[in-house]
Amino acid sequence: GAGVSQSPRYKVAKRGRDVALRCDSISGHVTLYWYRQTLGQGSEVLTYSQSDAQRDKSGRPSGRFSAERPERSVSTLKIQRTEQGDSAVYLCASSPISGGPNEQFFGPGTRLTVL
Amino acid sequence: AQSVAQPEDQVNVAEGNPLTVKCTYSVSGNPYLFWYVQYPNRGLQFLLKYITGDNLVKGSYGFEAEFNKSQTSFHLKKPSALVSDSALYFCAVTLNSGNTPLVFGKGTRLSVIA
Fold first, then answer.
1. Banded pLDDT at A51 (limits 50, 70, 90)
2. Distance between terminal CA atoms of chain A?
3. Measured between CB atoms, does B111 come within 8 Å of chain A?
4. Which among B90, B99, B104 has CB closest to A95?
5. A80-100: per-residue pLDDT in tens?
6. Which of B43, B51, B104 is the closest to A101 by Cβ?
7. CB of B82 within 8 A of CB of B37?
8. Which candidate, B83, B104, B78, places its Cα nearest to that of B23?
9. Residue A5 touches chain B, beta carbons under 8 Å
10. Which residue, A87, A86, A85, A69, is CA-closest to A77?
11. Contact, B63 vs B76, CB < 8 A?
12. Is some CB atom of chain B closer than 8 A to the CB atom of A25?
């Protein structure tokens, strides 16, 4: 079946603008994660939600990052007032409901460049 | 706080030779450990995980990893490297048994030379 997809694959934004990145996860998966990957720094979690509780753990670096989940298998990461330091690859991942901890299935990422 | 260290930014191996990609972790409880691989312009792909039980874990593409509690390590190994194994490798850890975020290392770039 289809894996995790993300759109757009590349995004260029002017500093100070808001951006929205979309993730379509695997049907039936419960938990959706957003990670930020930077060269030489690995990947750090930004936020995640578990569908039953709709819990959104907005995390680093501040409240500028949030995620919405309009459908069970769709998530939108919103970054407000982008900064040049937000330039990175944003990875979406999902995992199933069965007893964990489960492997996470990752999308190809969206490369964001903030000018 | 949980953390993962991958001490080598780059590992070079000749094709056919055994390879090892190192990972050490720091957690305050029992860790759940993962290895992922990333090819250019692709997302992270799951290789293997250690939850409990046998310290030697076998995964995809002939890779295996050994959990060593006393050394807090989880090194990735393969007996005979292929050129197609060249990629970025990430070690990750979580403390929780449910679906919670992973803490990743910075990654190690593996180059297998023909």
1. low
2. 37
3. no
4. B99
5. 999 999 999 999 999 987 666
6. B51
7. no
8. B104
9. no
10. A69
11. yes
12. no
